[in-house]
Amino acid sequence: MLLKTNRWKIIGLIFASLLLLLLMCGSIIYGYTDTTWKMAWDAFQFNNGSNEHLVITTVRLPRALIAAAVGFSVAIAGVLMQTLTKNPLASPDIFGVNAGAGFAVVIGITMFSMGNLQAITWVAFLGASIAAIGVYALGTAGREGLTPIKLTLAGAAMAAMFSSFTQGFLVTDEAALEQVLFWLAGSVQGRKLEILLSVLPYLIVGWLGAMVISPKMNVLSMGEDVAKGLGLRTGLLKVCIAIVVILLAGGSVAIAGPIGFIGIVIPHVARAIVGIDHRWLIPFSGLLGGCLLLIADILARYIIMPQEVPVGVMTAIIGTPFFIYIARKGFNAK
To answer: Which Pfam families does the record associate with it (predicted)?
Structure first.
């Protein structure tokens, strides 16, 4: 643990917040259209309607806000899932929650022509819920009950199933393929501020819910028998965790598509910095998750300029080596 005292953790939290703001500014400034910090300032103070000012205010500002919100949400969902399952590989993408939400959104958009943002959001929540329930049911089947390895296998199976359903559906509908392919890769490009505002209330409920249950998460991490002995209602807590994860993961997929690996990487990085106290771990993970997605999005603009790489591809490039390291290290969740 890098930061051992509460004083240093507060300083670290402030530093992470400032870093997030700096990266959001960088996301607004840097890209294919050549802009400067002065142009950005003028765009918000004295917008003259120029192409540069329009790019800054209508394209890059929503993009920066969406990347920060999605990264924040997915990282917190990863923390909750890893603690709940005692599995260091747990995250919304590995356990099929993102794939379930993505499949539901694809069906809603292509088969039912859903254009209403609220409807798409609720469809994403429904898909995420079905996937989460399916993984839990598969993971608890058998005499041994719930184990990290069974959960991982169940999550991989659920992710593969929903991904196969999605691909099979799109193969039969070329128009639908063109409509959702870039979204399925995970991207914050071209997203409007309206879609963030429509989902933001659910994300805020998820963020606040995660902080409210954070002290109880510390008790649960000591083991279910110990937690029950201390009077914790573990069943109710697990339901609350599931609801928060569905809100955060489903909302993120509705905004930006299924973006992977942040929910795996960031909780481990945050634990190395502040330890396993969820009162600090959750906000640190959220801030670092937002920072990582912003960094990935900025890099995605320059890899094959003037084209852009979907940010989901960039997070996979960053997260895959870390995933392999954790998998080789074993299932000794902290």
So the answer is: FecCD (PF01032)
CATH annotation of 64-329: 1.10.3470.10
How is 83-95 classified by DSSP, letter by letter? HHHT-TT--TTTT
Q: How confident is the model at residue 168 (pLDDT cuts 50, 70, 90)?
A: confident
Domain boundaries, the chain: 64-329
Contacts of 34 (CB under 8 A, 6+ apart): 52
Distance of CA 296 to the CA centre of its chain: 13
Q: Which of 207, 327, 200 is nearest to 264 (CA)?
A: 327
CA–CA–CA angle 126, 127, 130 (5° rounding): 85
- Evaluate whether 35 touches 55 at the Cβ level (below 8 Å): yes
The predicted-structure confidence for 48-70, as pLDDT tens digits, reads as follows 888 889 999 999 999 999 999 99
Helix (H) or strand (E) holding 31: none
Task: Report how far residue 320's alpha carbon sits from residue 260's, in angstroms, rounded to the nearest whole number.
Answer: 10
- Give the pLDDT score at 203: 96
Strands (E), the chain: none
